[in-house]
Specification:
The complex is a heterodimer.
Chain A lengths: L7 E2 L4 E5 L5 E5 L1 H7 L2 E5 L6 E2 L4 E7 L3 E5 L4 E6 L1 H5 L3 H4 L7 E5 L11 H9 L1
Antiparallel strand pairs in A: 1-2, 2-3, 3-9, 4-6, 5-8, 6-7, 8-9
Chain B lengths: L7 H6 L3 E5 L2 E6 L3 H10 L2 E4 L4 E6 L3 H8 L13 E7 L5 E11 L2 E6 L4 H14 L5 E4 L3 E7 L3 H8 L4 H4 L7 E4 L2 E4 L8 E7 L3 H10 L3 E2 L2 H10 L35 H6 L4 E8 L11 E4 L2 E11 L4 E9 L7 E6 L2 E8 L4 E2 L2 E2 L3
Classes of the chains: A alpha+beta, B alpha+beta.
Chain lengths: 126, 361
């Protein structure tokens, strides 16, 4: 299980990357793709829509099951990775390259509430 | 404490993802379920099916007993080795289990039943034995292991490893079996591909498994087994039918030999309640989502429900089996309620795939 140091993580297995422009890129962790198995479908959030922290905003489906992807912090979705939706198996190939959407957080400081790599590694191992 | 098959250590050594499957510790995949699926369609894959139970029915009344106990008619089994797919019904006409019956000799039949239903099946068979005062011994064979080798290259691989079995099985048609020493090889399966299901003493399972890997047969988990059987249009007990569902409503009328004279268990219930629904296939437009069991289907003739749904690796789109109102025809456009959306799907007649070929458009 890979947990890159520079990322932040949620209890519900999303990773969050801080971009230079102040937006946040979101995907699911290596652990999550491993548990889900072969990923075959991705339903992305609506660009321009505001979601609350923890709100289900996207859906990922593997051969096995469907799972919600939750908003890591409150904010507005500013981009969705449509190319990834066309080849969702990329999530299995490299979960941390497979960003799903970008958000402009309501409060830039909210990312501080998320787990760091070490905390997430402990959480995922439970 | 989960039950383990004789191949449990072999699965773990291969790095399988293990899951609790009806109380059994079983591999769901060994990495990629989709690659395992393709291996069976294109080459050769194998499954540990030792969690399933072989039940030997032996005695003077063996044929009479099964003629009453099963919805399909074992009188179709005339040549030794012949196999028959059948449901076993309760008195209300619901499906207790589906199984394959093998005929070895007039006084010796073998049933292979679902893992999760084995205990109920044994209780039911024991009750029927009492009811019919049948002179049969019903013996669960937990001493046996089972490996299903499936795919276009499956039989060739088996012959490479079990050369002594080639003569007895080379000309053997589908749905027949042969006994070779202490092994049973049946040309049956749950994938829609050619191959063998091999029943053998538990102590020999690991050696055969290893030898088949040596021949390039890919170990496949229960995940691929499910997508393969669904593409092949084969029912799964507990999803596509159960004790509350008539086989006539579950697409299994072809397996029911409805002859009042035979008076099999469930016969009068089926005659009193003719078919009211039908099991058909659905195909979803590419990349619009994944169909799952219990999703509602809206048709021009009323509502139906998906009983099994998945992503089909061969079609690269989602497919399902659905219980639909009578009158819905293949080709009809329907809508499936998926979360907050209505997705367009098309009704098709299963199977979706057989012998590597896509049969629906």
């Amino acid at each position: 299980m890979k947990t890159p140091e520079q990322l932040k993580y949620t209890q519900t297995h999303e990773w969050v990357a801080s971009e230079a422009d102040g937006t946040l890129a979101v995907g699911i962790t290596d652990h999550a793709q491993e548990v889900l198995g072969d990923i075959v479908f991705l339903e992305l959030p609506v660009v321009g829509k505001r979601y609350a922290q923890g709100e289900a905003c996207a859906v990922i489906e593997s051969v096995k099951a469907a799972s919600d992807i939750n908003m890591p912090v409150a904010g507005v979705v500013v981009a969705a990775n449509d190319a990834l939706a066309q080849s969702p198996e990329q999530v299995n190939a490299d979960a941390y390259a497979a960003w799903m959407f970008r958000i402009k957080p309501d409060n830039a400081g909210d990312i501080g509430n998320l787990m760091d790599a070490a905390a997430y590694a402990g959480h995922a191992a439970k | 404490m989960l039950k383990k098959t004789p191949l449990n250590a072999a699965h773990r050594a291969l790095g399988a993802h293990m899951v609790d499957f009806g109380g059994w510790d079983m591999p769901v995949n060994y990495g990629s379920q989709i690659e395992e699926h393709h291996a069976v369609r294109r080459d050769a894959g194998m499954f540990d099916t030792s969690h399933m139970l072989a039940v030997d029915v032996i005695g003077a009344d063996a044929r009479d007993f099964l003629r009453r106990a099963l919805a399909n008619n074992v009188d179709k089994l005339k040549l030794p080795g012949r196999a028959l797919y059948s449901c076993m019904l309760n008195d209300e006409g619901g499906v207790i289990d589906d199984l394959i019956a093998y005929f070895f000799a007039e006084e010796f039949f073998r049933l292979v039943v679902n893992a999760g239903r084995a205990e109920q099946d044994l209780e039911w068979l024991a009750a029927l034995r009492q009811r019919f005062r049948a002179a049969v011994e019903i013996t669960p064979r937990r001493d046996l292991a089972m490996i299903a080798v499936q795919g276009p290259r499956a039989r060739e691989c088996v012959w490479q490893v079990l050369s002594e079995a080639r003569v007895a099985t080379e000309a053997m048609p589908p749905f027949h079996s042969a006994q070779v020493d202490e092994l049973m090889l049946a040309r049956t399966g749950y994938t829609g591909e050619d191959g063998f299901e091999i029943v053998l003493p538990a102590g020999r399972a690991e050696a055969l498994w290893g030898a088949l890997i040596g021949c390039g047969v890919r170990p496949c988990g229960l995940g691929a087994r499910d997508t393969l059987r669904l593409e092949a249009g084969m029912n799964l007990w507990g999803q596509d039918m159960d004790e509350s569902v008539s086989p006539l409503d579950a697409g299994l009328a072809w397996t029911v030999d409805l002859d009042r004279a035979r008076d099999f268990v469930g016969c009068s219930a089926l005659l009193a309640h003719p078919q009211s629904r039908q099991l058909l296939g659905l195909v979803l437009a590419e990349k619009s989502g994944v169909l799952r069991s219990h999703q509602k289907v809206v048709t021009a003739q009323g509502e139906g429900e998906i009983t099994s749904g998945t992503f089909s690796p061969t079609l690269a789109r989602s497919i399902a089996l659905a219980r639909l109102p009578l009158g819905v025809k293949p080709g009809a456009p329907v809508q499936v309620m998926v979360r907050d959306k209505r997705l367009a799907a098309k009704v098709v007649k299963p199977p979706f795939v057989r012998n590597g070929r896509i049969l629906v458009d």
